[in-house]
Amino acid sequence: MQLPKKVLTSLLLFLVVSVDVRKNCYVPHTDGVDDSPAIMEVFGRCNVDSNIIFNTNIIYNAWSPMKWFNLTNVNIELRGQLHLPTNITEIQQKVVATYGSSTAPWFNIQGTNVNLRGEAAYKAGIIHGHGQHWWDLGVRTSRPLMVMFNVSTGTVSKIKMIQQIAHGFNVPGKNIKITDHYVDSVPTNGTRDSPASFPFNTDGFNIGGQNITIDGYYGNNGDDCVSIVNKANNVVARNGYCGFSSHGLSIGSLGSNGQNSQVANILFENWVMDGAVYGARFKSWAGGNGVAANITWRNIVLKNVSTPIFITQNYYDQSKGPKPNNTAPTSTHVQNFRFENFSGYMNPNWTDGTCISDPCWNYVEGINGTQGIIFDLYNGTATGLQVKNFHVRPYKGTEKDTTVICDPATLAPGAQDSLGFKCWDGQFVATPIHK
Ligand SMILES: *[C@@H]1O[C@H](CO)[C@@H](O)[C@H](O)[C@H]1NC(C)=O
Ligand SMILES: *[C@@H]1O[C@H](CO)[C@@H](O)[C@H](O)[C@H]1NC(C)=O
Ligand SMILES: *[C@@H]1O[C@H](CO)[C@@H](O)[C@H](O)[C@H]1NC(C)=O
Ligand SMILES: *[C@@H]1O[C@H](CO)[C@@H](O)[C@H](O)[C@H]1NC(C)=O
Ligand SMILES: *[C@@H]1O[C@H](CO)[C@@H](O)[C@H](O)[C@H]1NC(C)=O
Ligand SMILES: *[C@@H]1O[C@H](CO)[C@@H](O)[C@H](O)[C@H]1NC(C)=O
Ligand SMILES: *[C@@H]1O[C@H](CO)[C@@H](O)[C@H](O)[C@H]1NC(C)=O
Ligand SMILES: *[C@@H]1O[C@H](CO)[C@@H](O)[C@H](O)[C@H]1NC(C)=O
Ligand SMILES: *[C@@H]1O[C@H](CO)[C@@H](O)[C@H](O)[C@H]1NC(C)=O
Ligand SMILES: *[C@@H]1O[C@H](CO)[C@@H](O)[C@H](O)[C@H]1NC(C)=O
Ligand SMILES: *[C@@H]1O[C@H](CO)[C@@H](O)[C@H](O)[C@H]1NC(C)=O
Ligand SMILES: *[C@@H]1O[C@H](CO)[C@@H](O)[C@H](O)[C@H]1NC(C)=O
């Protein structure tokens, strides 16, 4: 039988369109020298319709900060490893020389349709920061961000972040899916409760973009696993594990220096928090502005977590003097925050190794290891808060020993009726939710 011409034509068209037109560009490596110039040469030459391939079993010397910009339809295949220099001064000097600022990214990625792909294999897909040196020496200023992933449409999959110096990934882009992410920022010889060699500020993700999904995260670090920052909208973060001394699944901080922050439509679900300081956390600065709306945390398992649910709309740096007076009656408003299905037990210690000031940065009057929920709200600006199916106990004791800190004078009118627990300073008592 002969195929009609029309069918033949579309078949041919289909074949042509589906042929992979991307070129393969392999990144060279030379032992003992900075590979960055060679890497940049490849990114310049293969910035459109390309697969840029970092070869298997190769440790690339990523000894200079790099801007991988102007990429269109590019797959970055990280089959080997990218290692930063081990010399702290060298890193600090190079970042300043590149950006004029000391907290800029080491790997800065921009473009459209960009996929950063690691691999599941043990020695593949690794970005190594050699952060241990920084943690041992307690160097906590002038630290680079590891990766800025600022793309429009893209993916990040199976990347392993090892010993981040400080922040891991910043994601300010849009339409991005992140899967099977791995973070190991645990000191070889430090503990959760000691500042010595503690991996300060080793956030997994800071997300300020739109339409972002994280699905699959396994991380041990010393700060937020996922932190949602100003301008984030439509973000889902699900199926994760946060260990060592995570600071939680966080929104903020928002409203710093009076900033008008806008964050909306965020969902965290199916997380195990192990040894964390917080489970779910919201933080906005005293005197801030803007709104955070429609935020849900659900199906959260807590193992040894200091404070399972924490909201402050009145944050200030306690180590830098007394609480500022909120001169304007503003604060970042909080609307429709849902906390559903939290279970597990708390940590006996309400803080961790990041507690290096007096008073401690996260000290709250009355805190003693029994508080399952702390709401430090700004009078009248928090609406639609709800806690449901909360079954958490202190490290020692039963659910009956769980307490809350919450000032009913700060609740918006009628808010207690749908809050789901009694807002007071005392025992956790579930209350009926009236619609
Ligand atoms: C990206 O493209 C713009 C415009 O063509 C150019 O000015 C810029 O130098 C490029 N950036 C990099 C890092 O290649
Ligand atoms: C580290 O880098 C700095 C600045 O480039 C340099 O002066 C110093 O000699 C380096 N240290 C080592 C141990 O290589
Ligand atoms: C992200 O990229 C956009 C251009 O696509 C640029 O305008 C913006 O400044 C970048 N943001 C950051 C944080 O680099
Ligand atoms: C961990 O080991 C390093 C290198 O020996 C050392 O500088 C650091 O002080 C140690 N940290 C702790 C907490 O013992
Ligand atoms: C986010 O996704 C929605 C639905 O697909 C789309 O309408 C919207 O334009 C996207 N936002 C951005 C910033 O791309
Ligand atoms: C919050 O969700 C409601 C209901 O889905 C929606 O109407 C509203 O626009 C959302 N708020 C923001 C700031 O996106
Ligand atoms: C509550 O969370 C646990 C742990 O994630 C999950 O196994 C369980 O199915 C959840 N229950 C409901 C009713 O969603
Ligand atoms: C809980 O954390 C404390 C340190 O804060 C530690 O001593 C204890 O062993 C941990 N318990 C479990 C079961 O992990
Ligand atoms: C805040 O205002 C009160 C009363 O007006 C005043 O006593 C206090 O000193 C002020 N605090 C600061 C930090 O300005
Ligand atoms: C709790 O953590 C603090 C801060 O790191 C530490 O000083 C203290 O010893 C810890 N307490 C216990 C009981 O482990
Ligand atoms: C909270 O604000 C309301 C009016 O918005 C006011 O009547 C009330 O006194 C305030 N309460 C506190 C504790 O400041
Ligand atoms: C901890 O503080 C709460 C008040 O917030 C109090 O009810 C409880 O008895 C205290 N528990 C312990 C063990 O000190």
Automatic annotation (TrEMBL):
Residues 1-18 form the signal peptide. Transmembrane segments: none annotated. One of its GO terms (molecular function) is polygalacturonase activity. Its EC number is 3.2.1.67. Pfam families: Glyco_hydro_28. Its main location: secreted. GO terms for cellular component: extracellular region. It catalyses: [(1->4)-alpha-D-galacturonosyl](n) + H2O = alpha-D-galacturonate + [(1->4)-alpha-D-galacturonosyl](n-1). One of its GO terms (biological process) is cell wall organization. It is found in: Secreted. Keywords: Cell wall biogenesis/degradation, Disulfide bond, Glycoprotein, Glycosidase, Hydrolase, Repeat, Secreted, Signal. InterPro entries: Glyco_hydro_28, Pectin_lyas_fold, Pectin_lyase_fold/virulence. It comes from the Eukaryota. Specific in hydrolyzing the terminal glycosidic bond of polygalacturonic acid and oligogalacturonates. Belongs to the glycosyl hydrolase 28 family. This is galacturonan 1,4-alpha-galacturonidase. It comes from Serendipita indica (strain DSM 11827).
